[in-house]
Design brief:
This protein starts with a helix and ends in a 5-residue tail after the last helix. Strands 1-3-2 form a 3-stranded antiparallel β-sheet. Helices cover 63% and strands 7% of the residues. The mean pLDDT is 88. Helix 3 packs across helix 5. By secondary structure, the protein is mainly α. 13% of the residues are buried. The longest helix has 31 residues. Strand 2 and strand 3 form a beta hairpin. It has one domain: Arc Repressor Mutant, subunit A (Orthogonal Bundle).
Length: 183
């Protein structure tokens, strides 16, 4: 069981009891969730700051992720595919980010052959140069740091665990949506 508030005051260890966790297992899940919050915020800052090193305009982490996903496999992608790949359902926010990237000249529209309404996006020559510079900065700044932990950290296992958690959150979200209280 988690340590009491009294134990914390006496300096024995951290108090981990609170409204989201009633036993050690729940404490572990809650600690994981708060780690995800912190990692997510740090990752968003990292993406925005790294892209800032490569391009003068301010971009968000979402803008940066969208740019890299558009470049992924060097083939055009439509907004629905981008949403699916980023596991996003807020199309209006993705469209806003897409407009920012278009205005900055990092991506360009392309139309599918034979289709007049299916717009896809691909990186422009400027976008290719910026994402290449981003990759070099990433190698120099981030990859060099992560290589130092390569012996103690199994990144593939971490990725699998996070993907599994993502699927569980999606399923729990679907169930919660079916039981949502009326407004």
């Amino acid at each position: 069981m988690s340590v009491s508030r009294n134990a914390r005051r006496t300096g024995q260890t951290l108090d981990k009891q609170w409204h989201l966790a009633t036993d050690d297992f729940e404490v572990g899940v809650t600690e994981l969730e708060f780690s995800i919050f912190r990692v997510s915020a740090a990752f968003e800052r990292w993406q925005a700051d790294c892209l800032g090193c490569c391009h003068g305009q301010p971009f968000s982490g979402t803008d940066t992720a969208l740019l890299h996903v558009i470049r992924m496999h060097d083939r055009p992608k439509g907004i629905s595919e981008l949403a699916r790949l980023l596991k996003r359902d807020d199309l209006s926010n993705l469209q806003y980010s897409t407009r920012k990237l278009l205005k900055a000249g990092l991506i360009e529209k392309s139309r599918q052959a034979g289709s007049k309404k299916d717009v896809t996006y691909q990186v422009s020559a400027v976008g290719r140069d910026v994402t290449d510079r981003y990759a070099r900065f990433r190698q120099e700044l981030l990859i060099s740091m992560t290589r130092a932990t390569a012996g103690s950290t199994d990144f593939e296992s971490l990725a699998r665990a996070l993907n599994m958690m993502s699927a569980m959150y999606d399923q729990a979200s679907c169930v919660a949506a079916t039981h949502r209280l009326p407004l």
